[in-house]
Write a structure and sequence with these properties.
Blueprint: H1 8-25, H2 29-35, H3 40-49, H4 67-80, H5 82-89, H6 92-101
Length: 105
């Protein structure tokens, strides 16, 4: 049977992502959606905390998280605003194919 419980490190990651989303995304989500504002300051803060490029290996500029950790962060951010969360996590759309099929060259 698969164990879906989170270890202490993943629980801390979930708490950090939830706190960030509640503090930085939730208060501006409706306004940003209405105005079409790009969340540049939110993205800078997320990047500084390691909440962007989560599925990209460290050697290529990402945080090197596992897919489970990547989706822990993605789900926590989407809870407050899926539009802003997708801006922060959109890299996963391209990097999966690159990681599977690309060469170092």
């Amino acid at each position: 049977m698969i164990d879906f419980s989170l270890n202490s490190q993943r629980k801390a990651l979930l708490e950090m992502a939830r706190d960030f989303a509640a503090r930085e995304i939730k208060p501006v989500a409706i306004e940003y959606d209405r105005d079409g504002t790009y969340p540049e300051e939110i993205a800078k803060k997320a990047h500084k905390l390691g909440l962007m490029y989560t599925n990209i290996p460290k050697e290529y500029g990402g945080t090197g998280m596992s897919f489970v950790e990547h989706y822990i962060v993605t789900e926590a951010m989407n809870y407050e605003c899926c539009a802003i969360a997708q801006v922060l996590g959109i890299s996963h759309l391209a990097t999966g194919a690159i990681m599977i099929g690309a060469t170092e060259e």
